[in-house]
Fold this protein.
Amino acid sequence: MTGTPTRPTRRGGASDLLARLFGNLLDSEYAHTTAPRTRPGRLAARAAALTALVATGFLLAVAYQSVLATEPAASKARAKLVSDVRERQRQADALQKQADRLRDDVARQREAALAGSGDAERLFDLGAASGLTAVHGDGVVVRLTDAPAPVDPVTGKPTGATNLGRVLDRDLQDVANELWRDGAEAIAINGERLTATSTIRQAGGAILVDFRPVTGPYEVSAVGPSDLDRRFQASDTGQRFRHYVAAYGMQVSVKRTKGLTLPAGPDPRLRYAVPAPTGSPTGSPTGSPTAGGSAGPSVGSSVPSPSGGG
Amino acid sequence: MFAVVALGVGVVLGLVLEPTVPAQLQPYLPIAVVAALDAVFGGVRAKLDKIFDDKQFVVSFVSNVLVAALIVYVGDHLGVGGQLSTGVVVVFGVRIFGNVAAIRRHLFRA
């Protein structure tokens, strides 16, 4: 209906309206004032006009200041937060440096104290086996990468289907366990050293190693005998992962690597048994006489400790 | 001349007093500013046209500001405050441009 030639008045009317609108707009309010009327008796009007002008200036200044006052509030808060973050980072760095220095100090003192006896080497071996000291050596790196998300062949957009080639916590557990069985002496996943109580578990979409999130590609580095990669490939687990590669598109590579350095694991938290609270009498149904609740083994699917490490 | 001085006095007053604008009046401030600017430019144009009238100026100033604020106030309560304030700004913007064009023609004959 719009724009049909049978209705020319419509368009004409519209443009007429616009013209009238702008014409009226441009028409000053003073159009009806025909002659200057600034007679001397109109001092009050003159004062009112000046007051209006003062008010205009006042308005301008107030508006400017209110913009100034509201605008930087957000950016000021942000700048403060940024400086806070920087400050905390500096503090954390300083503390980290101090901790490193103290740790070195402790190690040196221990060596000095144990010098001469064979205890130092034994301590070092035990530390390497338990994951408490960083180790350096040759080994393999097993690299696991998620298969690309399935895409719709027509639109090229990701479909909602589950990606069967995603690396799961179970896969990392299997790889780590297989490496332990093949004689690995130390294992780290994406730089997180596995110890006797390490956990590999999934929380939502993320995989947590020792409660620290790791993201793909997952690199399981292991220090061990020179034929570690062959042993891994020949194992049932290696075979299964080859199947995953073929069937689901997961990417797995096992590479022998020289000069791997695995960082030290987290310091083990010492746990102490504490006497049951004395306030509750022995007859209390909840009071456990053993008080071993806090000393249990770590929960979750923990990787077994190396059987023959060291 | 007095007009410019009065305008400057107003600016200085606003800067010195640093009044805090109540939160309820905050949305009307820019509208009021545009309306007041329109009145000022209309006055300048009338002055150049030699038809300036004090009473007309005061009435147009007050009514512009009040009507603009009222429109936005009503719009706020009807859920179209943002659109109406845009409309008010457009209308006053067009008027300011027209007035400035007239002033320009007066001053430069172009």
Q: What stands out?
A: The helical segments of chain A are 8-26, 43-114, 119-130, 169-181, 228-234, 236-248. The interface with chain B takes residues 22, 25-26, 28-30, 33-38, 42, 45-46, 48-66, 70 of chain A (CB under 8 Å). The two ends of chain A are 89 Å apart (CA to CA). Chain A is about 45% helix and 15% strand.
